[in-house]
Design a protein that fits this description.
Elements lengths: L1 H19 L15 H10 L6 E4 L2 H9 L26 E4 L4 H12 L4
Parallel strand pairs: 1-2
Helix pairs in contact: 1-2
């Protein structure tokens, strides 16, 4: 339910804060950008965070989802309602989902590595 998702988001954000407090930690949080409630909740809690989106077309996302055995999106849901891929309304880095993973990781590494 939406209430459960809100509670999950709040608990997850609190976990990030608690576990990183005083550690100078760099955290990476990964979740689907499909539903705006989780993304908006984290953005409100961490407004200064750097955001990255692995951008895929609806067709590519559907193809990849359909290959995940047992995934709750499998088969991809019909278009409509809360399952549409929602646009991101705040600044974010866009990574190309068709690029090799190594290229996207190389783009992200400078953002998560501590200076030596």
């Amino acid at each position: 339910t939406l209430a459960e998702r809100r509670a999950f988001a709040s608990d997850a954000a609190e976990y990030v804060v608690t576990e990183s407090d005083g550690k100078g930690a760099v955290c990476v949080v990964s979740f689907s950008f499909v539903n705006t409630d989780l993304r908006d909740s984290f953005h409100a809690r961490f407004p200064e965070a750097t955001w990255a989106l692995v951008d895929a077309s609806d067709a590519l996302a559907g193809e990849r989802i359909s290959q995940r055995d047992g995934h709750f999106y499998n088969p991809p849901p019909a278009k409509g309602g809360e399952w549409l891929f929602a646009p991101v309304e705040f600044d974010h880095l866009v990574l190309d989902a068709t690029s090799p993973v190594e290229e996207n990781v190389a783009t992200l590494l400078p953002l998560v590595r501590r200076p030596s």
